[in-house]
Amino acid sequence: MNVTLKALTLVTGHYGSGKTNFALNLACQQAELGKSVTLVDLDIVNPYFRSSDYPDLLSSRGIRLIAPKFAGQTLDAPGLPPDILAAFDKTYGDNDVTIIDVGGDSVGSTALGRFAPRIRAMDSSMLYVVNNNRPEIAAPRNAVAILREIETVSRLSASAIVNNSHLMGGTTPEVIESSVEYAGQVSELTGLPILLHTAPIALAGLIRGVDNLMPVEIYVKKPWE
Amino acid sequence: MSNKVLMKGNEALAEAAILAGCRHFFGYPITPQTELAAYMAKKMPKIGGVYLQAESEVAAINMVLGASSAGVRVMTSSSSPGISLKSEGISYLIGSDLPALIINVQRGGPGLGGIQPGQADYYQATRGIGHGDARLLVFAPSTVQEMVDLVFKAFELGDKYRMPAMILADGMLGQMMEPVELPDAAAATSERKTWATDGHGGKRKKNITNSLYLDPYLLEKTIHERRLRYDELNAGYQMAEEFYTDDADIIVTAYGASARVSRSAVVMAREIGIKAGLLRPISLWPFPASVIQRLSASAKVFLTVEMSMGQMVDDVRLAVNGVKPVDFFGRTGGVIPTPAEILTAIKNLA
Fold it and tell me: In whole angstroms, what separates CA B226 from the centre of its chain?
């Protein structure tokens, strides 16, 4: 399914829920739809498995990447890049979308807080990515608790849920099908709609009874895969 | 449905330690192991355990020593530069015959180095962890599942042989996620420690844990007694995994994350008709020398792959003992070798 995005989309969630792989897929999909896409890597907490590790993929799709200055610099002290301000200050045309891949948990979302007033004034949405195979959010009420922490520090409210439940290499159609009920419970507890469910492209055709399914490429891999 | 969950290596190490009965964690944050400490900070208070972020690594390891002396399962975790700071305390643990679990999620070095994965602390873990005639149990997992399993093993053997044990991981293993099946907490075995300084209550002779022996003959006797335990471990607990080694001409030896990459390279080599195999040490001390000695009879050449300038390769050479050539390929400073690079190194030997 193709997603219609607002000018600014924030991708948040528990760390390890698959935000980065989802954000990369979302950016590629929007580029394919002819949008002018900017992807911001706002993860200033974790130096591993991040959007800015994929510059070749992004540039090949014509996606602009804004990444924090982090590893590779002299100091082990992450800072926000000055060009991130462009994401909030620029005048968005009908064709422009910006996707922000936010760091995990409330720690990662803290970086959003200072931009909250600007974000609230914009045409924006905040997505909350969940994966019921991550132990700390496997119980729907725990997923809600982490969302509330994220909302508190970011001073923003989530607008929809993305069900990205998977078991990496151990993902089967059943893993995804059985997560739909979980996503529904998170939706019920929060009152937020489920924007979509993801499934690896190879499995998408085998999944039964799931609406709003977005087939995703697995971009975030280990060095030996 | 299996009861598999998706965990980061760092989280899995922490959860496994809790399941193995560890209720005491003393540490200090450092990338790329911080999720482990963060996990403990969240979990320990909920289960009646102790999480304490010390003022430094040196303080943390001495808290570990105190807790271990009192007879409880205790651990600390850090990454390369932090382990250097802890090495004094580790030597004291060894000298006091005290068990403890020490996690090193290695990064690039020396000095502050970098924050990407490394394997350049092999010498430190197997040779130079503190001063003195000292040995440390060292285990090298290569999957998140194995991280869990080896935490149990490390506690079990550490308690049995009264010595600290290290899990030598790296930033890639610590940060990556894999499906994992957690064992039942009941799987943990822990016998009461009769030597613990946990209060005699007037009912037994007092216990003393100490690493200071001013009488050289007494110190020598103590070291010899410890040496006997080392010999027993060396004879009975060498651990390694073999992959396509039966008919292999080229044996790649690698541990941890570089073994994962090497495994992919071995599969690629087999696809183009090169008889390659992988020998993956799981225990780094005791080093699985006997299996390498066996393979050196049938293999034509060894290729050791590490994320360092070449450290474990020394142990491979000692085990091969000049019978066959031993070559080396490595990337270092936080760079992970690619399967293609290792395949090229294999092809050069074919």
Answer: 20
